[in-house]
Amino acid sequence: MTVPVSVPPGSTAVATDPLSYAPLFVVDTSGETEVLRRVATLRDFAELPQLELTYFDVRTPNAQAWFDNVQAGDTLRITNGPAHWIQAQAPYTNHDFTVQGIFIRATGSAPQALTGRQLLLPGYAFTPDDVGRWVRLSGFTTSGYNGLTQIVSYLGSVAVVTKTFASPEVGGTWQFEYVTVRPNPLGPGYEPRYFPTRATNLPWSLYRGASLLASGAGGGASMRERKDPLVRSVRFTHLAATLDEATALFEYVAAELDRLQASAARNNTAFTTLLTRTEGP
Fold this sequence. Notes:
The protein is of the alpha+beta class. It is built from 3 helices and 15 strands. The strands form 2 sheets. Strands 3-12-5-4-13-14 form a 6-stranded antiparallel β-barrel. Strands 2-1-15 form a 3-stranded antiparallel sheet. The longest helix is centred in the C-terminal third of the chain and has 30 residues, at 243-272. The protein is globular, with a radius of gyration of 23 Å. The termini are far apart.
């Protein structure tokens, strides 16, 4: 649904007023696939966080080349990306995303290298999502213990990693790194651009200009900053099984937006206009 911006009468809307974009969709992020729960209510705006799909994580064995090279302004290309991510209207016309910067998802101090390939990160609770991720270590006296290592598995608070430690040692810091993508690559007047859906095992390439810096056949993941059960989002992309299903979803969203607008108008009136009613004779 678009609001035309300075287009001749009868022309297709090519952009919308940026102020018309709001995190209207309440998304359930708890399952393997994200699910649209509803169009937001006024209470949702007060209680639920806005978390967009702007984060990218790489978990392939060769991902060290990604972490060692990626910089703001680079192009992340999802090679052979999902076809339903593409639409005719900008900015979703290709699978290229501009890297905005490096984001530290979690960090802490005093990582403990245990004999063999075991690693303890004080204060951090491992989850199944961490398997395959890379963690950056620093501050060890043994230089080979520093740098990136990949998590292969974990048991409780101890992870098995790809580095081998000859003897126990305590380092300085540890951190997990993501990148964020630029939400407005085309500038003002266009819809914000996020990853259309949460996905895993995405093939990826990293470019600086025309130069290929790194690539992986899979292991890329699009995600939100964190995995809250319910979040608000500007965009929700759903791949419908039938045209009837898609049309029904469109009509539902339109009706709920009308309800939300009416509710907001009543709320605004109640707080800005003094209403007086006389009771009795």
